[in-house]
Each structure stands twice: as C-alpha cells, then as structure tokens.
Amino acid sequence: MTTHLSTAQEVLKIEIEGLQALLDQLMDSDSGFSRAFHHALDLIENATGRVIVTGMGKSGHIAKKIAATFASTGEPASFVHPGEASHGDLGMISQNDIVLALSNSGETPELRDVIAYCGRFDIPLIAITSGAKSDLADAADSVLLLPPVREACEETRAPTTSTTMSLAIGDALAVALLRSRGFTATDFRNFHPGGKLGAALRKVKHMMHGEDVLPLCSNDTPIAQAVRQVSVSGFGCVGVVDETGDLLGIITDGDLRRHFNEPLSDKLASDIMTVDPKTVSPETLAAEALAILSQKRITALFVTEGKKPVGLLHIHDCLSIGVI
C-alpha cells in the first residue's frame, strides 16, 4: 500500500513539475513560448474556418479532448485522425481552416501527409511538440514547444507528463479565446443543455412559477388573511406589495413562528413582514439562485423586474432539475 501511494505521489510531483515549467515560460512575456502562444491565438482568431486538431496515439486522445473543449466554448473545431487523413479525410480540412497538430517527438509518420497538405494549400499550422528541430516544428507557423521535463513513467517513457502539458496548453488556448471573444455562461449553456451543467446554466425565467400563481397581498392585509395565503399557496410565503404593485416585503413560515406568541389579531401584513427581501431577476442563472437560497437559508425567492414581482422560484424547482 505504501509503495503504491509513494509511486502515485511521485507521478503527480513529476507532472506538476511539467505544468510549472509551462507556467514559468508563460510568465516570461518575452520568452519564445509566450510569443508563440500569442501568435497561435492570433492565427486561430483570424481563421474563418474551423480548428482542426490532430494527433496520433496518446496525442490523438488529447487532441480529441482539445477539439471538444474548443467546440464547447464557441470555437468551431473537429478532430481529424492523421492515419485516416492519408486515406481521404484530408478532404475534411478546408483552406479556411487552421490545423493544431500534437506530437511529442514531432516526427510522427502519420502526420506527414497532414503537414504536406497544410503546406500545399497554405493552411496555417500550429504545433504542440517537444521536438524543437523536428519536421513538425520546421513546418509549423507557430511552435508551442514543450519544456524538457521527465515523463512520469521513466521505465518506458510512455507519454504522461508530455500529454498532461499538451492538454493544459489546449485548455489555455481555449479559455484565452473564450475570454477574448466575450463568450458567456449563456453561450456555454447553448452547447450544454443536458445534465447537471446544463441545469445549472438554465435561467430563472425558464423555471419560475408565473404571475398567475404568485402569492401576494397588500401591506394593509390583516394577518389572518395573509396566513391563509401562505397556507394555500404551497410556497410557504406570501409577498407583500404596495398600491403600485412594488414588492415591499415577504412573510414566510419563519416570520409567523417568530411572532407566534404575540397578539396578532389587530396586526397587518406590513407589521410582521421581512422588509426588502432578497430577490433575483428572470435572467439570473439557476446555479446563482440556488446559491442565494442556500446561503440565506431560505426556501423561496421572488423574481422581480425592477421592483415588480413577476415570478417565484422555490428551492425544490432547482433541485428537481438537478441544479447543485
């Protein structure tokens, strides 16, 4: 058990060393790596087509993930297998595209036809490689050169640290492009409608109970009547509005408990309401709304436009669709 843990710890330490070496290169704005990173971003931003990501073996698996990350963050991207490219799939790469090729050595035989194709049709080529003097590096317009660090599997030199660094560079490119283009959480949800992530990125307006069922009363409503509305509504609360319809406060089960021992027969809704309750807008993300509900330890939020209540969101509405 101890041996296994020490081996795992060593692997993580070596891979962290690789990531730290990458970070050190990026921290130096005058380094060749930083300049190449900026150039790669410029090439991708100026391309009118897709980012074609390619690689063989372990690099191919990383390339697929990078392509998926680009695609999910607003940058059209596809993975092209270099072996299949030599048998017809080069036709999937248009002259408006840009190619991002991954190869630790830079001498992967299967990439040669892709490299030649880029040169023939003047398609920009970005390389992620450790081979500074490799065929891939020589042909590339921008070379993101991996620093010389150990592979975590020193016995076989199987791609470990190098693939981790390649994946991190892909993430860095994707996030930098995302922020440069002002890609928002709303845009992101368009590509992630399913699962917990999609649920968290839904907007309150798509989940809230509408105006026709809102539990509301005026500020001069007798307490007995307000209590009936709290009970009948099923939301555990009633909103208190003024004569113009603006939300003044809220009465919850908790408010009623706090005033339980007081004589309430002569009191009005405004006497026991919580003033200026926390509200959200229809455009608020579901995850943000759930965070407010959790932090404030409340079960419902009125949804307002300006000060006018237009909906109500209950914590069960969030939980029922998988928001966490």
What does this structure look like?
This protein has 2 domains: 2-183, 3-Layer(aba) Sandwich (Rossmann fold); 204-320, Roll (CBS-domain). It is built from 14 helices and 12 strands. It has helices spanning 2-27, 32-46, 58-72, 82-85, 112-120, 135-139, 161-180, 185-190, 195-200, 223-233, 253-258, 269-272, 286-296, 315-320, and strands at 51-55, 77-79, 98-102, 125-129, 142-145, 216-218, 237-241, 247-252, 274-275, 279-280, 300-305, 308-314. The strands form 3 sheets. The chain has a 5-stranded parallel sheet with strand order 2-1-3-4-5. Strands 6-7-8-9 form a 4-stranded mixed sheet. α6 links the parallel β4 and β5. The longest helix is centred in the first third of the chain and has 26 residues, at 2-27.
Uncertain segments are: none
**β-sheet strand percentage:** 15-25%
Number of helices: 14
Alpha carbon gap, first and last residue:
35 Å
Number of domains: 2
The biggest sheet amounts to: 5 strands, parallel
Give me the strand/helix succession: HHEHEHEHEHEHHHEHEEHHEEHEEH
Q: CATH class of the largest domain, please?
A: Alpha Beta
Structural class from helices and strands?
A: alpha/beta
Overall strand count: 12
Helix content: 40-55%
- Quaternary form: single chain
Quickly give the CATH architecture of the largest domain.
Answer: 3-Layer(aba) Sandwich
Q: What is CATH's topology name of the largest domain? A: Rossmann fold
Strand order of the largest sheet: 2-1-3-4-5
Mean pLDDT over the full residue set: 89
